[in-house]
Amino acid sequence: MNNQPENVRGADGIGAGAGNGVGAGKGGLAGMSLGVSSVSAKKRAEREAAQAKASAGGAGGADGASGAGGASAAVEESAAATLQLDPKDPLAPLWQLDGVAHAADVAAKAIQAVHRHKANLRKHNVTGSESVLRGARASAWLEGGEPALPDDGNITDPVLAAALRVADTISPESIGETTRVWQRAPQQVLAKFALNASPAGETEDGSEARMKAGRPVGDDKLSSAMKEQRLHVLGDFITGRSQIHAGVLSAIVHGELLTLRPFEYHNGIIARAASRLTTVATGLDPRGLAVPEVYWTRHRQEYFEAAEGFASGSADGLRAWILLHLEGLKAGAVEARGIAEAV
Asked: Exposure of 292 by Cβ count < 10 A (0-12 exposed, 13-18 middle, 19+ buried)?
């Protein structure tokens, strides 16, 4: 069973169709021939060493900068506008697409501003919980489920139940541990999302169904092994292979998981949760306050069409998807402000 909307199905993922290695396919990022193959340990070590050296040099000229929240915030707010990617960065072409850098900057500033709301400074666990709940309900609706919570609390709609189980993993109570795992082993978190999104999420630990639920499943486009390989490639980006803006990275995670459809149940719910987690883990939305899912739900047809465009791998398709995703982040900050005002 696969509950991904029909108009997002049938597209290839990162390097989909590759017979030898990764990056030989034509869908998603692979359609732009971005060279999305696994980075070698040697290259990774060289890059990390260079980054550490650069960071040390910058620290030497900023005596007493640690703990200076105002200066840090100013740097963060200007980051999108000044981001200069290495031309060899595999995602650099996406940053050059018309309007992407500006949209990323606008979205980031909107999210940063709502974090400074007095309610989010004092009661961010309350506002963060409401954000996750609203996001889960909207995500369930996009997946074809019922968004309304029953008055008696007895949730019978399986799609809504799945969305709420996944949301538990990124709630304020759980987000710290989930983020730590995501930053070093994102495939483990995706497997947990997949388990919670499946009917097996309601079963007892140790059942065979639970063991299978977190594993990729093959289809007529890709085998399960090929999908697992693509998830490892995506994991490279999540753990730092690219220095692309966090808003764009969250769009890539979102679009690739919609495109790849790696799991048996509710890949849309998983993709949107992973996108939200990416904004938290990268520091774009550290308290998880924005509710972009509401915007995407209100523009559902545009959302599905943009997802198809992303899956095509064309520059126009990728651009349209990233811009729609970033517009969702910006609108999600407006939704977050509404939550804060109500507290």
From this structure: buried
The answer on pLDDT for 102 being more than 70 is yes
> Which pLDDT tens digit goes with each residue over 236-268?
999 999 999 999 999 999 999 999 999 999 999
Tell me how far apart the alpha carbons of residues 343 and 339 are, in angstroms, rounded to a whole number: 7
Q: Is 150 exposed, middle or buried (0-12, 13-18, 19+ CB in 10 A)?
A: exposed
Residue 230 CB partners (closer than 8 Å, separation 6+)? 13, 14, 15, 16, 22, 222, 256, 260, 262
Token digits of residue 263: 């799991």
Report which DSSP code applies to 218: -
Least confident of 99-113, 196-210, 258-272: 196-210
Spatial separation of the C-alpha atoms in residues 259 and 222, rounded to whole Å: 12
> What are the Cα distances from residue 217, in Å, to 53, 78, 116, 240, 264?
42, 42, 43, 26, 6
Distance of CA 133 to the CA centre of its chain: 17
| Contact assessment for residue 77 and residue 108, using Cβ atoms and an 8 Å cutoff | yes
Question: Which residue carries 């999420």 as its tokens?
Answer: 201
Rounded CA-CA distance 295/310 in Å is: 18
Global confidence as pTM: 0.79
Compute the residue count for the chain.
343
Does pLDDT of 47 surpass 70?
Answer: no
Q: Is 12 left (phi over 0), alpha (psi -120 to 50) or beta?
A: beta
137-150 pLDDT, tens digit each: 999 999 999 988 98
CA 219 to chain centroid: 23
* Residues 167/143, Cβ–Cβ less than 8 Å: no
